[in-house]
Amino acid sequence: MANLKSIDTAFRQAVESKAMPGIVAVAATDKGVVYEGAFGKRELGKDAPMTLDTVVWIASMTKAITATAAMQLIERGKLALERPASETVPALASAKVLEGFDAAGKPRLRPATRPITLRHLLTHTAGFAYEIWESSIAQYQQATGTPGITTCANAALTTPLLFDPGDRWDYGINIDWVGKMVEAVSGQTLDRYFQEHIFGPLGMKDTAFKIGPAQRARLAKIHQRDDKGALAPIDLEIPQEPEFHMGGGGLYGTAGDYLTFALMIMQGGSLKGAQVLRPDTAALMAQNHIGELEVGMLKTAIPPLSNDVELFPGMSKKWGLSFLINTQQAPTGRSAGSLAWAGLANTYFWIDRTKRVAGVFLSQVLPFYDHTAIDLFGTFEAEVYRAI
Known about the structure:
By secondary structure, the chain is an alpha+beta fold. The chain contains 10 helices and 16 strands. A hairpin with a 4-residue loop joins β14 and β15 (357-362). α1 packs antiparallel against α10 (371-387), α2 packs parallel to α5 and α2 (62-75) crosses α6.
């Protein structure tokens, strides 16, 4: 293992100054672990330390796992990228485009001009959005009594489209619908499907929608930063008996488990003798699937939950199935064409298939795109590249 004391120093200073509550980070190449470290506390004011096996809410890092399940089912001929998704989940046929609100505040809706496909959903081009970054969705939820997605209530999936499928990229509840499609064609609940076809084969023992007793004993608390920068623990947990398993953001897990998943993708769908995907499928997932469309900035509509999000400012960014793709080399050393994404509580990962390295950074802090967390993640990534 490389001696990466500069990462240790940065992480230790952040937790000792209470700029961050706790951090876990791991990185590896084909040859083995490059870095692993855990610093700080699982909850500020409590004694339990962050450890390498601390369990956190990985939120939207769930999306790549749900996409992997869908790609497995494409391999088996049970799903197809271009087929109308409503053939699998009929409720998608009734998705309408929100044009605005009338004088009384009632939503004005119209039919979509084309059907939603699995490719639209996997690439966030179906028209769905999140209320965190789109105020019109929050307005619709208020006007209609529609619950937010983290309630894991089926009614949360009834929010409208903001544009016709395929017209542009916008980040939203798309992958929750993909989870519904996985369930529909597999005949299994999403948790069982993941366990049988992904987690079990890869040995990911600590990743699940439902927090088991062994995992709860190692669970980190989510913290929220106020407008003065101070952190305090909050009570936020994804429903443990949900109406549906949130394929877009419901999983809990560990850094080691997610690194295992990332290395499987990096190594073409297999890891340590377990084949999860065919090599051609893993390669397909890593390609740009939005053509000339661009991944744009996410401007916050709910500041306590997210800051404005602009990854790699000034760089053209694309989307695969289902990952962010940077089109140029990043300042950290990340190769062009690498895969990445993140979770709302400031969890991040990247997969560099060119330089053969992957990394995972976990914290439990809101709002998303926390500048302290992002700076630390950048330091971690850059020092990993310096070491390999």
